[in-house]
Design goal:
With about 400 residues, the protein is of the alpha/beta class. It contains 13 helices and 15 strands. An 8-stranded mixed sheet has the order 7-8-9-10-11-12-13-14. Strands 6-5-4-3-2-1-15 form a 7-stranded mixed sheet. The longest helix is centred in the middle third of the chain and has 21 residues, at about 205-225. The chain is globular, with a radius of gyration of 20 Å. The two termini are about 15 Å apart. About 45% of the residues are buried.
């Protein structure tokens, strides 16, 4: 059986391919599509290469596309992919069966800031402020990203309807809501997908309902007294982002091998979800073959307890130095708490002195005589592969 995680160059975002199934009939899952430019430069060429090798006379079947959360550095490439599929119609080289995505509308119960439908994902603070939206004069980058990504959710839902994709199956409506969201309800454990088993560990229904309730209260308070700080606080700062709090995290398994996909989720919420799903042992620990590190190696999403509970043979960090990711503090946590395995980085050189930071990290590994190894994506290649089962040749 094939079970391989392919890590594509995604700049400051995430873009992953999961290959699984019988070698004679391999399956494919796409997890996030990276920010602007990643689809045309990396994801599309890779998908076409796989099609030409695996399915030269027919369209390439994609079992599922999963958007971990609606932030441009995860969703942009998927929007572009589905836009092209809609435009190409039956001439598209790809087919997709399932789409998992939690949209802003559904997460927040369709109660939104006025005018967000007209905002594009590339909007900046000045662009949003120029639209005259309330409560947007002092926005952080996280808050801008939340507002700017609202239109992408609608775009994906519209494309999914045109393409007749199965959206967020097999999940049911959130209690007291019309929203159908991917979440970690106990009744949805071990979801099968073409031989793959998926257990969603975050977000859970309680947290999603709390987000909706808080948003509704804050929006009503804003409309009543115009306090701009209410909305900007509700939109999220640090790890309070409504998208990061609702980021899909799931454990995927095949034949005893496992990959923990974390999106931009918070480590404490992921641990809580793993425990609720009885995935931690009696000592509250779990070993996985691959751990996709949360939020591009941001320290804001990671606590020491996570490394003490979750161990892996392979750790994946997709980042290019933007926003200082991976953070030095996160790399220090790796040095202090992870004693073996391999850390895969998509970039050794990049923004904000990334090379200097990574060189220092390498020196500390040598100094501590650590058994932790590092591997970097070759700048001349589109991707790198972690193979947990039979090897693939495409």
């Amino acid at each position: 059986m094939i079970f391989s995680l392919e890590i594509l160059q995604a700049k400051h975002g995430d873009c992953l391919l999961l290959h699984f199934g019988a070698k004679a009939d391999p399956k494919l899952m796409v997890i996030d599509g990276g920010p602007s430019g990643v689809y045309n430069s990396f994801l599309k060429p890779r998908l076409l290469a796989i099609k030409n090798k695996r399915s030269p006379a027919h369209r390439l079947p994609i079992s599922m596309i999963m958007v971990s959360h609606l932030d441009d550095d995860h969703a942009n490439g998927i929007c572009t992919l589905t836009d092209e599929m809609v435009s190409d119609g039956n001439q598209s080289p790809f087919t997709v069966r399932h789409l998992w995505v939690n949209t802003f509308d559904d997460i927040l119960g369709n109660n939104q800031l006025p005018g967000t439908a007209s905002i594009t994902a590339s909007a900046n603070a000045a662009g949003i402020a120029s639209l005259g939206l309330p409560g947007t004069d002092k926005l952080s980058k996280d808050e801008i990203a939340v507002i700017a990504s609202t239109s992408q959710g609608r775009q994906l839902r519209d494309n999914a309807k045109t393409l007749t994709l199965a959206v967020n199956i097999p999940f049911k409506k959130l209690a007291g809501s019309d929203a159908v969201l991917v979440r970690s309800d106990a009744s949805q454990e071990n979801i099968p997908l073409d031989g793959l088993s998926i257990t969603v560990v975050s977000p859970d229904q309680q947290r999603l309902k709390k987000l909706q309730s808080q948003w509704d209260k804050d929006l009503k308070r804003f409309k009543k007294n115009g306090d701009k700080s209410i909305i900007t606080a509700s939109l999220g700062n640090d790890d309070g982002s409504v998208f990061n709090l609702s980021s899909i995290a799931c454990l995927v398994t095949v034949n005893g091998k496992s990959i923990l996909l974390t999106g931009d989720g918070r480590s404490d919420y992921i641990l809580e979800g793993l425990e609720k799903n009885s995935l931690l042992d009696a000592h509250k620990k779990l070993h996985v073959d691959v751990l996709k590190m949360p939020h591009h190696g941001s320290i804001r999403n990671m606590g020491k307890e996570f490394f003490q509970s979750i161990t892996a043979d392979h750790y994946v960090i997709s980042a290019d130095g933007r926003d200082d990711n991976p953070d030095k503090e996160l790399l220090d946590l790796l040095l202090e708490n992870v004693t073996s395995g391999t850390v895969y980085f998509t970039n050794k050189d990049g923004k904000n002195g990334l090379k200097k930071k990574m060189d220092a990290f390498e020196k500390e590994l040598i100094k501590k005589k650590s058994k932790l190894k590092t591997k970097y994506l070759d700048a001349s290649k589109q991707s790198m592969l972690i193979e947990l089962g039979e090897k693939i040749n495409f």
